[in-house]
Write a structure and sequence with these properties.
Layout: H1 2-32, E1 40-48, E2 51-52, E3 58-64, E4 70-73, E5 77-78, E6 86-92, E7 102-107, E8 111-112, E9 117-118, E10 122-123, E11 126-127, E12 137-140, E13 143-145, E14 169-177, E15 187-192, E16 195-196, E17 200-201, E18 206-211, E19 222-227, E20 230-237, E21 243-244, E22 249-251, H2 323-354
Parallel strand pairs: 1-12, 1-13, 14-21, 14-22
Antiparallel strand pairs: 1-2, 1-6, 3-4, 3-5, 3-7, 7-8, 7-9, 10-11, 14-18, 15-16, 15-17, 15-19, 19-20
């Protein structure tokens, strides 16, 4: 504590010496006609409601015009940057338009100090607006603030939510449609929100459906079961990783199955009869008729020799019976005549060949 007090005394003495020297230099500068910088440099202790302020707060100076608008804001300096609860090197200016106006001191742009200063040279405790200030004005001013600034909360990074993956559930049990069991092979499925499960088939009046919507938005959503457009009376909330083997379902009466439309019988195509290929007419071969050899045949004259024993009574005359009997006899004798003539011809040809 004594060390800090001694340090404060030494700094005050140094500032006083610099101020006196600055005034001397300023007078010399005025005599030589040097340009004026019109800048003030502040330092001092910082307290909050009489207590030393924590290090790290940002301190700035502001100057307003007569209308109350801020016309100048200094660069910030940090409380405790060199000594705990103390600020240094708070530069105000140059700002010629703000000369003679009040300087406000702000902590973290939230709280204004109870102490103020004037942006102008001070001579014998009085503001000297006509005085020249070629060199920067070095001023020590302790600042007190009624309350501490509210620390701006650093937004914590929003943790990325871990995706919840729901495991599939299995539902099975008995099925009734009205008062009867649906026929085997009847399709059944389940829905959870916009999710539709794969189709399953009813066998022996039982079903078995797997529901796997995965996303956590389906948790506790109702699971409803359908046969076609018919909805079961029962439903359960989806929990995931459930195996309910006794969830019996009751549906309204199933509509009668549609009458199958007989398929049209295909008319057999008629058998095509092959068109017969015309057979060329056979050409008649002329029969060669042998030229008959005319042979003079002796005419056999029959001489009727009367039978001496015939006394004439009861004999048959060739002429008896008239012309009809003669014609009949002639017809009967014709074959024998032809046969006899052929034998005569053959007998006549044989001697000719031997000669």
């Amino acid at each position: 504590m004594k060390t800090r007090a001694l340090l404060v005394v030494l700094v005050a003495a140094l500032i006083a010496a610099v101020t006196v020297g600055g005034l001397t230099l300023q007078d010399r500068a005025e005599a030589q006609g040097l340009p004026e910088l019109r800048t003030a440099i502040y330092q001092g202790n910082v307290t909050i409601d009489g207590e030393p302020a924590p290090n790290g707060f940002e301190l700035t100076a502001r100057i307003r015009n007569s209308a109350g608008d801020v016309i100048y804001t200094s660069a910030p300096t940090i409380v405790g940057n060199t000594v705990d609860s103390r600020y240094t090197a708070l530069v105000v200016g140059p700002a010629p338009e703000a000369e003679g106006r009040v300087i406000e001191f702000w902590l973290d742009d939230q709280v204004i100090s109870t102490n103020v200063s004037v942006f102008a040279p001070i001579l014998n405790g009085q503001v000297c607006l006509g005085c020249s200030w070629t060199l920067p004005l070095l001023r020590t001013l302790d600042l007190d603030f009624p309350t501490a600034p509210v620390a701006t909360p650093t937004p914590s990074p929003t943790p990325t939510p871990t995706a919840v993956v729901l495991l599939p559930s299995l539902y099975s049990g008995q099925v009734l449609a009205g008062s009867s069991i649906p026929p085997d092979g009847t399709p059944i499925f389940a829905q959870v929100g916009d999710y539709t499960s794969p189709f399953a088939s009813i066998e022996d009046g039982r079903y078995q459906v797997v529901v796997n919507p995965v996303g956590e938005e389906y948790l506790d959503a109702p699971v409803v079961f359908f046969i076609g457009e018919l909805r079961a009376v029962q439903s359960v909330p989806f929990k995931g990783n459930e195996f309910l083997d006794s969830l019996n379902l009751i549906f309204p009466n199933l509509p009668p199955p549609p009458t199958p439309t007989p398929e049209p019988t295909a008319t057999p195509e008629p058998t095509r009869t092959p068109t017969p290929v015309p057979t060329p007419s056979p050409t008649a071969t002329p029969t060669v008729t042998p030229t008959p050899i005319v042979t003079t045949e002796p005419t056999a004259q029959a001489t009727a020799t009367p039978d001496p024993d015939d006394s004439g009574g009861g004999s048959c005359s060739a002429r008896s019976g008239g012309p009809a009997s003669t014609g009949i006899l002639a017809l009967l004798a014709l074959p024998f005549g032809l046969l006899l003539s052929r034998r005569i011809l053959r007998a006549a040809r044989v001697p000719e060949q031997t000669d």
